């Protein structure tokens, strides 16, 4: 297996063998009533090899899972791995939101509005913004977009934020990241008023998330989506050992705070963690948000653990029409033989992120208009 293209973090990664304990744990099927047809309750007979797990503290990694030098042992393995279907859950959530929005419009004539500010010409950012707009359309949220040139000034961005802060038809403001390097991201994110911070990135929201007895107005969308998946599949969190891999402000750190709020015992693994597999292999729940393809091997996973894979990594694939495909941080093929439940990539956490953005925007419109709030306003 070969490493390619460091600049774009485009990695050729294979993950075709290995794993550690191929012990079988039955997933508690009584927990699966909400999404019964999601359950991939399948029986497989596999021959597994113990593999080499490789890791790197840089953005690039050679993930060489089918090492001929590994000591091969054959294990007849039956698995009951369950696929946590984020696409389907996100669709359900969008439908629920659409119903609420149409009721809101009928009863008080208010339509939630989301404003998105995009600076520059990054294609990926433009795609994300387009997808967000499309998602807003499907549920009946009004979307407002400002697209500024790459060489715009910070002041211009701040002016637009200020206008949206004052605009009563806008309930959520989102600044698409990353911003051009000449802009101060912190200044810009801090300018979004906390009541419209549907991304949940404002330090006040994060601060409240971290404090006992305080409630954030919004929770960042991706970690909120991870927890919502666990809830919708009735996967218990309280008292469980959870490991979050990655500690970024937008995913890893808030995911760890959320798990802690749900009474899990939480460890965080990051690029300087020694022997991460020793920590992950004790976890009942792993949320991985790293950006390293197939880094989490089957041998890193405790039998029966629940795995939430946030990572989205393009890996070279000559057979794909695009020349690449997307994989997660978790080596799905191996880990799904050990875990009790796992999110796929794509189709796991990704669709949930946008669903949570819509949910936060609806939440904001309700709060601003003093409508009845759900009993728990975070996930
Ligand atoms: P960042 O690059 O901001 O953070 C990555 C984190 O991973 C850092 O905390 C870093 O540690 C840690 N890390 C890096 N290498 C290793 C390693 N070898 N072992 C352990 N930890 C490591 O990424 P993001 O949090 O923004 O995104 C993470 C992944 O999630 C990406 O693939 C991204 O595309 C995806 N993503 C998916 C979303 C979705 O909707 N599904 C939304 C957002 C992101 P350190 O702090 O020490 O540097």
UniProtKB/TrEMBL annotation:
Coiled-coil blocks: none
Gene Ontology molecular functions: methenyltetrahydrofolate cyclohydrolase activity; methylenetetrahydrofolate dehydrogenase (NADP+) activity
Assembly with partners or alone: Homodimer.
High-level lineage: Eukaryota, Viridiplantae, Streptophyta, Embryophyta, Tracheophyta
A GO term from the CC aspect: cytosol
CDD domains hit by this protein: NAD_bind_m-THF_DH_Cyclohyd (cd01080)
Domain Tetrahydrofolate dehydrogenase/cyclohydrolase NAD(P)-binding: 220-367
HAMAP family: THF_DHG_CYH
Pathway: One-carbon metabolism; tetrahydrofolate interconversion
Function according to Swiss-Prot or TrEMBL: Catalyzes the oxidation of 5,10-methylenetetrahydrofolate to 5,10-methenyltetrahydrofolate and then the hydrolysis of 5,10-methenyltetrahydrofolate to 10-formyltetrahydrofolate.
Organism: Mikania micrantha (bitter vine)
Keywords: Hydrolase, Multifunctional enzyme, NADP, One-carbon metabolism, Oxidoreductase, Photorespiration
Protein name, as recorded: Uncharacterized protein
């Amino acid at each position: 297996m070969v490493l390619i293209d460091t600049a774009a973090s485009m990695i050729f990664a294979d993950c075709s063998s290995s794993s550690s304990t191929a012990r079988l744990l039955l997933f508690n099927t009584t927990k699966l009533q909400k999404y019964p047809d999601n359950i991939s309750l399948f029986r497989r007979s596999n021959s597994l090899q113990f593999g080499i797990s490789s890791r790197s503290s840089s953005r690039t990694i050679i993930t060489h899972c089918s090492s001929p030098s590994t000591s091969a042992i054959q294990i007849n393995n039956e698995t009951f791995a369950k696929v946590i279907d984020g696409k389907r859950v996100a669709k359900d959530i969008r439908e629920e939101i659409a119903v609420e929005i149409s009721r809101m419009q009928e009863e008080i004539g208010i339509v939630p509005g989301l404003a998105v500010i995009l600076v520059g010409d990054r294609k990926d950012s433009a795609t994300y913004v387009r997808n967000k707009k499309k998602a807003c359309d499907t549920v009946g949220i009004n979307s407002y977009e400002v697209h500024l040139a790459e060489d715009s000034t910070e002041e211009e961005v701040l002016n637009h934020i200020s206008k949206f802060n004052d605009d009563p038809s806008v309930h959520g403001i989102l600044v698409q990241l990353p911003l051009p390097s000449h802009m101060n991201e912190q200044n810009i994110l801090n300018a979004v008023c906390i009541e419209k911070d549907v991304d949940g990135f404002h330090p006040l929201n994060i601060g409240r998330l971290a404090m006992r007895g305080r409630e954030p107005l919004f929770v960042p969308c991706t970690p909120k989506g991870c927890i919502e998946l666990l809830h919708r599949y009735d996967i218990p969190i309280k008292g469980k050992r959870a490991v979050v891999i990655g500690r970024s402000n937008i995913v890893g750190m808030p995911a760890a705070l959320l798990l802690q709020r749900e009474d899990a015992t939480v460890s965080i693994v990051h690029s300087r963690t020694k022997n991460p597999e020793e920590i992950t292999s004790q976890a009942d729940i792993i949320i991985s948000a790293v950006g390293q393809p197939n880094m989490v091997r089957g041998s890193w996973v405790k039998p029966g653990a629940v795995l939430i894979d946030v990572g989205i990594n393009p890996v070279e694939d000559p057979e794909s029409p695009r020349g690449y495909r997307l994989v997660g941080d978790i080596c799905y093929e191996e880990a799904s033989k050990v875990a009790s439940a796992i999110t796929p990539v794509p189709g796991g956490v990704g669709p949930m992120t946008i669903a949570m953005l819509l949910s936060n925007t609806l939440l904001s419109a309700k709060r601003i208009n003093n409508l009845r709030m759900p009993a728990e306003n975070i996930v």
